[in-house]
Write a structure and sequence with these properties.
It is built from five helices and 15 strands. The protein is an alpha+beta fold. It folds into two domains: 129 residues, Immunoglobulin-like, CATH 2.60.40; 157 residues, C8orf32 fold (Roll), CATH 3.10.620. Strands 2, 3, 4, 5, 6, 14 and 15 form a seven-stranded antiparallel beta sheet that branches. A four-stranded antiparallel beta sheet has the order 12-11-10-13, with helices on one face. A two-stranded antiparallel sheet has the order 1-7. β10 and β11 form a beta hairpin. The two termini are 17 Å apart. The N terminus is likely disordered.
């Protein structure tokens, strides 16, 4: 879940003007990944979260997403408990290389609601929010308490708290590849003071939860930046529901047309774009992956997705 460091901090006020309902922006996207193996694989079972999420920020077109693999496999599609569309593909043809490709069409809604602030002490959340307040595998609030207090300082309202955490992570965590993995917990990110988008997101999640703010992980794409998948977060507003913020960019008020959401969860471990297992005497590894969003295309085919492999 790595991407280049974004632009400057977008600071916001307690109330972000009158609501702006701008036209939806239709886009197509393509994703491709190639896995290689040191010996023959006789069974490969994968769970793919590469379909566009359906919420007020985006509306998937009918059919949502097309997914195929080389070799082909048997696919079933189902929603998980958080509304993510999961495609499970089981491949039994012997192979030493696996290609996973996905294409889809979605309308991005540049939704800009008025954000009314509220004192943290007055906020109450229902049972559905509790899992986003407590520790998850990679974002444990108990491990970052001192930094969370430092980041928030005297802030006492919801929006000021979120803004303070997002700004602190953006200013204190150096964007650097190679020091972390997708399994690095927030405490280790804090210790190393470095990481990539999923690391910054995990740290911000843990810090927000430490202050009683329900926060969840988002996996998806930056629409104007071809490359690997991106991670950001959403925090729970008592009236408006889940609202986005991006610690990697230091941004709290996001342009909806700049982000394409695949899935949400407590942290990366629950919603990786691709996860699964294989049966082989050898080892396997990700050789290459990339994705691209197209604003000016009538259609995007699987051939277009496979053409992205030419950049490997």
């Amino acid at each position: 879940m790595q991407t280049e460091l974004g632009g400057p901090l977008a600071l916001g006020s307690q109330s972000v003007g009158p609501q702006s309902e701008r036209p939806s922006v239709p886009v197509h996207y393509a994703y491709v990944a190639r896995y290689e193996y040191s010996d023959v694989v006789v069974q490969n079972d994968n769970f793919l979260r590469l379909s566009p999420y359906d919420d007020r920020y985006q509306t998937p077109a009918e059919g949502g997403c097309d997914i195929f693999t080389i070799p082909a496999g048997r696919k079933i599609t189902y929603p998980d408990r958080l509304g993510n569309e999961v495609n499970r593909i089981r491949i039994t043809a012997p192979h030493r290389e696996l290609i996973i490709a996905a294409t889809g069409r979605v309308c991005l809604n540049d939704h800009a609601p008025v954000l009314d602030d509220a004192p943290l002490a007055s906020l109450t959340y229902g049972l559905d929010a509790q899992e986003f307040l407590t520790a998850s595998l990679l974002a444990d609030p108990e491990t970052v308490l001192a930094a969370a207090r430092e980041a928030v300082g005297s802030a006492s309202t919801l929006l000021d708290t979120v803004r303070s955490v997002v700004t602190w992570v953006y200013e204190h965590i150096r964007y650097e590849r190679g020091n972390t993995s997708v399994n690095t917990p927030a405490a280790d990110v804090l210790d190393s003071q470095s990481g990539v988008c999923q690391d910054m997101t995990h740290l911000a999640l843990a810090m927000l939860r430490a202050h009683g703010v329900p926060a969840r992980y988002v996996s998806g794409l930056l629409t104007r930046q071809p490359g690997e998948t991106h991670a950001w977060l959403e925090f729970l507003h008592p009236e408006l529901g889940w609202l986005p913020a991006d610690p990697t960019k230091g941004a709290m008020e996001l342009n909806g047309a700049d982000y394409l959401k695949f899935a949400v969860g407590r942290d990366y471990s629950e919603v990786p774009p691709v996860s699964g297992s294989f049966v082989s005497r050898g080892e396997g590894w990700l050789n290459f992956t990339t994705a691209e969003v197209f604003f000016d295309r009538e259609t995007v085919s699987m051939d277009d997705a496979l053409a992205l492999l030419n950049g490997s």
